[in-house]
Amino acid sequence: MRPAAGGESSLPRAEGFRFAVIASRFNDHITSALRDGAQAALREAGAADTDIELLVVPGAFELPQAARAAAETGRFDAIITVGCVIRGATPHFEYISAAAAHGVMAAAGETGVPIAFGVLTTDTEAQAEERAGPGSDNKGREAAAAAIEMAILFRRLGRPPARPPSRPFGFSAGGEA
Ligand code: INI
Q: What pTM was computed for the model?
């Protein structure tokens, strides 16, 4: 894969693609780091700020619903979901984790838009923090890399480019809806 501008990135190129980053607020101290990792990766790969839209939902359970709605707009070549479910603090951990994972997979399959799963499902907060640091194993960054790769693959398979919004949006990589 050709590296991004600057020559040092291992990410595939993202210019010319449009992305949504959908972040859940629950466990915000973790999910904000995942969101930052995803956005930084997209920019490092060459995506324009105006081609990255940030959407925020309450919890991981809402990620599939928002991802589906975002996919149906036709505005995105790929979507990145980020969230965090911690077993120790969540009696219904299994339900939320499974609903998020299956819901994202279903939304991707049924809309035809790649949707990456950047949701941490860990036993402890410490494990979540390990996967939300600034390094290359940030789960948001990993999900962004997968989303770029899938956008490239789907374009090669004939998927038409996403349509940007007809009027400028009130949010982009720097803000939220
Ligand atoms: N949502 C999460 O993203 N992570 C969690 O750990 C969590 N816990 O602990 O409950 C959580 N709950 C909220 C859930 O995702 C929904 O927002 C809520 O059930 C309303 O639909």
A: 0.90
